[in-house]
Amino acid sequence: MSAIILASMIALPVMWPAPADIMETSSIYSWTCSKLLGWHTRMMRDGVPLLIWGHEPFPGWGSFESVTIRSPLEAGLWGNGEWEIDFKSSRIPDSSYASGIGLLENTSFQNRYTAYLRRPLPADLLIDFSLSREDTLKNQRFVLGWDNIVLVGRGWQTTEDGYTLGSIWKPANFMTRLSFVHLNAGGRQWELLGSYSAQFGEVLFQTGAAGSLSDNEMQMVEGHMRLEFPFQGMTTILRTDITDSQDAFSLGGTAGLIARYGFLDVQAGAVLPPGSDISFIGIAGAGPAELNLSIDSDGIEGGLQTIFTTGSGYLHSGVSLKADTLRFAGTVMPSVGWGASGRIHGGVTWDLLNAHDHTSGTMDLKSLFTLGNFAFIFAIEDILDDYRSYTFGITWIFNDKPPRRAEEEEDGN
User: Fold this and answer.
1) How many Å separate Cα 371 from the centre of its chain?
2) Which residues of the chain have pLDDT under 70?
3) Taking the model in full, what pTM does it have?
4) How far is Cα 132 from Cα 358, in angstroms, rounded to an integer?
5) Rounded CA gap, 9 and 22, in Å?
6) Angle at 104 between CA 138 and CA 136, to 5 degrees
7) Fewer CB in 10 Å around end: N or C, the chain?
8) Which residues fall within 8 angstroms of residue 46, CB to CB, at 6 or more apart?
C-alpha cells in the first residue's frame, strides 16, 4: 500500500489493476489526459513496442503487474516522440507459484474471465501463462524464461485476429528480439529489434533499431537515439527518431527539461513525432494532480488529471478540453473495513463527453467485497442507457510463501 500512496504523490501515473478492472482493462488508464485527448500514444511491454508494424490490442487483465503512463519526455528509447503506455510484466515468484482466476457473468452475454499461472520450473526455467476474455476480446500469452533468454507468445481473437511468437536475448547492456507475427488483416511478417544502453558518468546513452519484413518487402524500419543528462539541477532529454514506413521516410525528435523538487514535477519541451507536426508540451504536477498542455498549429489543448490512493479508497480522474470538446472520465471507489481482513468497496466509473452542445456518456456502478486475495464483484453497467446490464462474479489470487528451513524456524522461536 505504501508504494501505491507514493506513486499517487508524483506526476508519473503508475496504476495497479484492481479486481473490478477485469470488467474493462482500459479503465485502468482511460481517464488519463493523453487518452482523453487522443494524443499520439505508443504501447509498450517492459519498455519495448508490442509490435513494430500492425495492430496489437491491449494486454488482458492478469497478464501484467502494473501500467505506467509516460510523457514524450519521460518515454524510453522506443517512445518515438509519443505518449507511452508501458505494461510491466509480473515477476516470476521465488516460491512455488503465483496464480489467479476470475469469472464474471453478465446479463447481456458480455462475460469475462481470466486465469494465470506463474512459477519456476526445474533447470532454472521460469513460466508465465495467462488467458482472458473481455467482452468480445480474447487474449492468451505465455512466457518461458531461462537466464537471459526469454521465449514469448501471444494470441488474440477479435475483429483483428493475430498471434506473435518471439525470442528475447538480453546480455549485459544489449537487448535483441526476433519475432514472427501473423495478422489476420495484414498477413505474415518477421520482426527484428535491437537496442544498446550505457551509462557514461551522469549521461545515459541509448540507441536502437527495428525492422518488419513481410513477403520480402520492408513494412517498417525505425531507428532511435536518446540522451539523458543533468543540467542546472534538472534533467535534459534529447532524442532523435527515424522511421521509414513503406517508402515514406520521416525524421523526428524531442528536446526538453524535467525538473523535480520534492512533490513538484515540471516538464517542458518540443516534440516532433516522425510524420507529424511539431508541438510544445508543458506538464506541471503537484501532489496527486497533474496539468498537461500541448500547443501546436491547431491551438492549445490540455487537461487535468489526478491519481489518489489511500487505505480508504481511491480516485482516478481526468478532464480534457480540445476545441469545443470537453471530456470527463474516471473512477472513484471508497471503501470501509469489514471484520478482521475484509473490505467493502463501492463506487462509480464514468466517461462523459460534451461536444457541439451535445452531452453523451456512459457510467457503471461497481461494488466489491474483498477478503484477503478473494473478491466478489457486483456491478450495473451502462446505467445511463436503456440497455443496462448486470455483472457479478469473483476473482481469486493464490500464492505460497518460500519454504522455511527447520533451523530458521528454531531461530524464530
Assistant:
1) 27
2) 1-12, 401-413
3) 0.90
4) 36
5) 25
6) 25
7) C
8) 86, 87, 88, 89
